[in-house]
User: Fold these one by one.
Assistant:
Number 1:
Amino acid sequence: MATQAISVDTLPSYNPATGETVENIPRTQPEELPVILARAQTAQQKWRQTSIADRCALLDRLKQAMLAARNELAAIVVRESGKPHVEALFSDVFVSLDTAAYYSSNLSKLLASERVPHHSSAAKLKSGRLFYEPLGIIGIISSWNYPLAIPMGQIITAVAAGNGVICKTSDFTPKCGAMIQEMFAKAGFPDSLVNIVQGGAEIGQALIDAGPDKILFTGSVATGKRVAEACARNLTPSVLELGGKDAMLVLADANLDIASSAALWGSFTNCGQVCLSVERLFVERSASEKFLALCIEKTKTLRLGPGNDTATDVGPLIRPQHVQRMKDLLADATSRGARILLGGNARPDLGPCFFEPTVIADVDSSMRLFQEETFGPILTVQTVANADDAIRAANDSPFALAASVWTSDNERGRQIAAHIRAGAVMVNDAISYFAIAEAPHGGCNASGWGRTHGRTGFLEMVQPKYVDVDGLAGKEKPWWYHYNDSLTHAADDFLSYEFGGLSAKLKYARGALKTFFRDHGFKKRPS
Ligand code: NAD
């Protein structure tokens, strides 16, 4: 039988549920990046002049195109990432649609110039305004776990702000990248404004080296460090959305039935391959036994299977080597005293990437399961004495992305949130803030820097420009040379007036005012 030759210049679109390569997608070559950048720059020069109304109309057309193709988009996300179809709809497709909807209705508000009121007397007669201009070309490097939601959310924000985009989608999900390109073309965006490039590390580096105006990177800590180094060489600013090790704090007064369902979903959704997964669960001792029993009972009801079966709750991991990693993490934990209460096994009978949803207790900070990002379907529990211990344990991590607090007392939840080092804390929910367009997302320490989403994320895509118009254009400023004793005294009076108390203000007002009406005598002074 003749075998079909596969070009080395393609990326396999691999289905983790079956282990099959379904299709091959053409790779971008590193030397193409400077050419793609130059074309994007030309397109962006025109795009930045496009009115906000026209931009919003195109974003609305993008939304319509994605809505019409929603099941096709979800099916490709399922095929390449393995997640259940309903998760692809609720996460990837929802976030893509909602971001387009948000910017098409809010862009003029977000880009409106703002008056900058001045507090100091010296600046009162100047009128200041802040304008938000596009940065130019935004380079986006994305992960595979939300292959539509993450790149789409970032691309839409970038173009809404007037930028062009070159986005390297993950080499694990090349078909999703191709679909993104297709959606922008279908919506009628200008040629070369949004460019999807396909490949691995070599294309990521070539994208950075080509010199875009900013890099938005989503991925692991190890790659994030390489990206930061490469950006630093060209002084390219970056946003780094890196890993998480999110804590879930279950207080004794929480509704344990609700909290246990949330613990399952927070740990197992997308097979635990979420930067915001619940990866360290701390439960107060008095609630621990009941809570764990509920988690075990409910985990037993979950169906493991392919994402295209509508009855599947938990799909496969992304690649077979990730199955081995789960085994290694669990072996390390049990060798140090942790107890697997449920699951803990690979399921080769279902396919090469399946691993059972697992509940493991008595995990502590000496174990890899608490130190490293798990990125798999493992609900990892530690019992703590009280809320203070839970806070201490939650903060004992190099990661600081997000966390959740579970309590029937919202005020107590808010107070505990104030003590947790994280970019976001949810009280009585987990993960879902990522789908709120107004909520900023991002962390600090090993979880990276900068933000995506919300106004804070939008501001990462623009250059703020301050424009100041002088109200006394016909007068020389007092500090413009011909310094002398009298100006020195006047400056001294001015400082006493400006920063002294009421009596100083009365005493020095005249001297300070004089400063503003000083005659420099430029024409009189001999040269
Ligand atoms: P990864 O670091 O392996 O890859 C991320 C992207 O970087 C991919 O497109 C990859 O091809 C590219 N890349 C790899 N080496 C590169 C290099 N040297 N230079 C430039 N680009 C390079 O991460 P992943 O496995 O795709 O994603 C999983 C990780 O992403 C997890 O750590 C997860 O927590 C994190 N993540 C974070 C967020 C967040 O918002 N904070 C969201 C999703 C995923």
Note: Residues 85-111 form the longest helix (27 residues).
Number 2:
Amino acid sequence: MKTAELNIESVRKDFPILRQLMNGRPLVYLDNGATAQKPLQVLKAIEKFYKEQNANIHRGVHLLSQEATVAYEKARETVQKHINAAHPHEIIFTSGTTESVNLVAHTFAKKFLEKGDEILITEMEHHSNILPWQVACEEKGAVLKVAPVNDKGELIISEYEKLLTPKTKIVAIAHVSNTLGTINPVQEMIQAAHEKGIPVLIDGAQAIPHMKVDVRWLDADFYCFSGHKVFGPTGIGVLYGKEEWLNKLPNYKVGGGTIRTVTFKETEYGGLPIRFEAGTPNIDGVIGMAAALDYINGISMDAIHAYEHELLVYATERISGIKGVRIIGTAAEKAGVLSFVVEGMHPLDIGMLLDAQGVAVRTGHHCTQPLMERFKINGTVRASLAFYNTKEEIDVFAVALIKALQRL
Ligand code: PLP
């Protein structure tokens, strides 16, 4: 039995926040796509850092600074191993997915984008993987092209392939859609782009918490994710880039930590990864995120993936069986997300009625307004799962939803 691998009772003990009451009812936290909860192991790693290791990194001669530096760089190796990057210096710490995409969009456009060039994204992108490219296009007179999705919320691959033209300079795709849950066939999509010599950035914000990601198997040129969605702290994220690509990109933010030598006339910058990590970084964030990755690897990504799949199938059956509910996003390959609308009821009202019963979901456009336009809806109710959720919680959610639809 797949679920036997994941000891849910013991897992839930690691997340004290889940034991709370909300509006007088046990919390059922189904807003993991927005941010995930943090296990004690992450909280303890951050506490240990501040109790025993806190010092600024990289430039200190004293022992404490050296210890903090070792912890910080060890965390980089943890991330490297987690996504199977070839080198630790291919891991750049950023403040999150949004900053990672901005870093690439800004620097790539500066160096490689010209008037009339094209950037290809998809209809299901999060605003964080639209706006940086839109700005790049505006600045350079380039054109943003968008690969469409079908009614199930799957990318139409034949259309995507048609949009890969000699003018396409870079492709940026979500690995998993935060609104639909669709898992895109990114390995094949990357291969198709590479056949035409086009680099690909993957927005992995919603993939990393749910599945094993191997950037070398995918052959991704860039891969971005956020610490807080993978059970780590907020304000920390990752930009993975192939060494050859990161070396081609010009500077982004500059300042302390990025240099070899500075005079008032000129500056010689450092190599990877420090050239992209200006200023004192989010040291405790990095350490906390690495603890989160250690934690999920301790459970095993395969067990998490299998368990969540079971949970998603169960939730889909329960929720789609409720009268009036229409699921948005019915792709064959899905991860952890159940979005739906109910005719005649605003998603926000449903969200509030669920909240009154202790069930936390997200409502609205989920930072995917163009996708809402595609489905001709103003928003959805989105339940997003994590491995600490249970079938019993799904039952509570289903009963609460029925009550909400009857206006309690
Ligand atoms: N991309 C996707 C697919 C997301 O779901 C999100 C957040 O919800 C982001 C990007 C932005 O992540 P962050 O706000 O952590 O930068």
Note: The two ends are 37 Å apart (CA to CA).
